[in-house]
Design a protein that fits this description.
The protein is built from 14 helices and 14 strands. The chain has 387 residues and is α/β, with parallel strands linked by helices. The strands form two sheets. A seven-stranded parallel β-sheet has the order 3-2-1-4-5-6-7, sandwiched between helices. It is globular, with a radius of gyration of 20 Å.
Length: 387
């Protein structure tokens, strides 16, 4: 008798979440025991944040449902309302799709909506990348997702131990690594930058000459420090401007304070007209990683500096508290929002010879591990908590 494939519903709510799950989507789609249901929601559908759904569909994935749930405001109140709207809309989506399991990704504020809508309807919940620690609201959301989840697919041994210490059933906690490392591994096998970022993606700013080396900046607001987002990004802008090294700068995520970050960028761009900086909204995941591996240094507060750049061996200057306590490699140096400190750290990272590639978050086969775990784990279970 032929086995009916398990319906695995994966919810992607933001631009960075796609690279966090892409290889797993492919593995689930191709697995004979699984059926992929893909729901795209939140800022992943919005043009001003890069419209990630276009890249997702271009990569050959069929989108089962689209959920528009982002409310304007980019402050803590709009974040709470966006999450509430997400719960209502996603509850209807899951009722319609009748998945055997729902997958929620990592720690963005709106991912708790996926967890609530699934777990409250007794649909087994799978959480990717739980057990890590950082700053701001992300850590609270990540740990809340963990407590709502039934199956935990973590990215490191340290994270696995932490999830078990939180009282979760050890038999339901698996270290699969991070799927974004799978993409980084592909890039390492063919590291040449074989496209012109400005010609391919447009963006705004000067047509910089990047052939002799360049920096990459990705800085997001910190949700618990959102009122200083504009001041913080202006500090980084001044540092990069004064370094006068060709730089590709990426737009922030939709979080409380992102209007301050984006407003600071626009104001600085118009006021100073920096000749060494070009700005982008988004790139396809592999292109972005190719850009990183060929760069002199990544600056900002994105987790890509902690995860992918550790695997790629890309020097990283991590600014502020957003990635507090997250396990990191020797590629990372931490600084505060001080212009001179940032400049000195960038110059030191560029000239450093002690940076090595490390596989803290996986070895390049996480997508396959995730699909196999989903296929071979009994998802028709009641949550067991160990005390």
């Amino acid at each position: 008798m032929k086995q009916i494939p398990k319906k695995i519903c994966v919810v992607i709510t933001a631009r960075p979440s796609y690279s966090r799950i892409k290889s797993a989507l492919t593995a689930i789609k191709n697995h004979p025991k699984l059926e992929l249901q893909l729901v795209i929601a939140g800022s992943a559908l919005l043009g001003r944040y890069g419209n990630a759904v276009e890249y997702i569909e271009k990569d050959g994935f069929t989108v089962s449902e689209k959920v528009f749930m982002v409310l304007e405001g980019e402050n803590p109140t709009s974040m709470a309302k966006t999450t509430g709207l997400g719960v209502m809309e996603l509850a209807n989506v899951f009722y319609k799709l009748e998945p055997d399991a729902v997958v929620t990704i990592a720690d963005r504020f709106e991912t708790i909506a996926t967890s609530i809508a699934a777990s409250y309807q007794n649909i087994p919940l799978v959480h990717i990348q739980g057990g890590e620690v950082t700053g701001n609201i992300d850590e609270k959301v990540r740990h809340a997702n963990t407590k709502l989840a039934d199956l935990h697919l973590v990215a490191s041994e340290e994270a696995k131990e932490r999830v078990i210490k939180m009282g979760e059933n050890p038999a339901m906690v698996f270290n699969t690594g991070c799927p974004s490392i799978d993409l980084a591994d592909e890039v390492l096998n063919n590291p040449k930058l074989n496209f012109n970022p400005i010609e391919k993606y447009g963006g705004v700013g000067e047509n910089i000459d990047f052939k002799n080396g360049y920096l990459v900046v990705m800085q997001h607001p910190v949700t618990t420090e959102y009122d200083s987002a504009r001041k913080d990004v202006e500090t980084t802008l001044k540092a990069i401007y004064e370094l006068d090294i060709p730089t590709f700068w990426f737009w922030p995520n939709v979080d409380a304070g992102s209007d301050g970050t984006s407003g600071g960028i626009r104001s600085f761009r118009e006021r100073m007209k920096p000749k060494n900086i070009h700005f982008f909204k988004n790139m396809e995941p592999q292109d972005f990683l190719s850009l990183l591996v060929n760069s002199k240094c990544l600056i900002g507060n994105s987790s890509v500096g902690i995860r992918e750049c550790s695997y790629l061996g890309v020097p990283t200057v991590n600014i502020g508290t957003r990635q507090n306590r997250r396990q990191r490699g020797t590629n990372v140096v931490d600084v505060s929002y001080d212009k001179q400190e940032i400049k000195e750290a960038v110059l030191a990272r560029i000239s450093s010879v002690d940076i090595i590639k490390q596989n803290i978050y996986g070895t390049g086969n996480s997508g396959e591990k995730i699909a196999e775990t989903l296929a071979n784990t009994n998802l028709s279970f009641h949550k067991t908590i160990v005390y």
